[in-house]
Amino acid sequence: MKMHGILQDCIRTQKVASLYFDKENPFSHLTGRILQIRQNEVLIAHISMHGCYDGYILKRIDDLYRVDVDGKYEQKIGRLYSIKGQSHPPISIDASDRSLLQTLLNFAKQARLIVTFEFADECLSGFVESMRHETVDLIAEPRNGVPLLRLFPACQPLRKRFFSLSSEYTVDKRILTQKLFI
Hints:
The protein is of the alpha+beta class. The chain has helices at about 1-15, 70-85, 100-110; strands at about 15-20, 30-40, 40-45, 55-60, 65-70, 115-120, 125-130, 135-145, 145-155, 160-165, 180. The chain is globular. The longest helix has 12 residues, at about 1-15. The protein is about 20% helix and about 40% strand. Strands 1, 2, 3, 4, 5, 6, 7, 8, 9, 10 and 11 form an eleven-stranded mixed β-sheet that branches.
């Protein structure tokens, strides 16, 4: 319950925070503004270490073990973000929305953002083509110029419930659009 209170305070103050989810790698963290929390999910407007827009990330609160706010690093990232005139595209989240994942998938589909689902043994990236009940259809990276259609159950357990939206995409994927990690 203590983490929920800290996250609620971050939402209220809109301060930049660093969130730590991986106890095996204590130097690994995500930095950004907390936008929403729902039951066991936290939505982060991720900011890169250079103070730039770096998408949205949805993570499980159960995996969160540390939150830093008001440290020198968080203040520096917040200043860079402001100085560079960065912003995250607004996502309309209704208080009645039970699933942030569904809201983010709808946002990604409408905005034609690339999504990445990180599972225990693989990552899937692509554009959201359609969503039906517990299935999401992704049009994955093109091979030989032909986009692949990947279907998978949306309820399949994600490794640490990783979901993110980003404006960058690696060149080797040959897709020049924005990216949404889920």
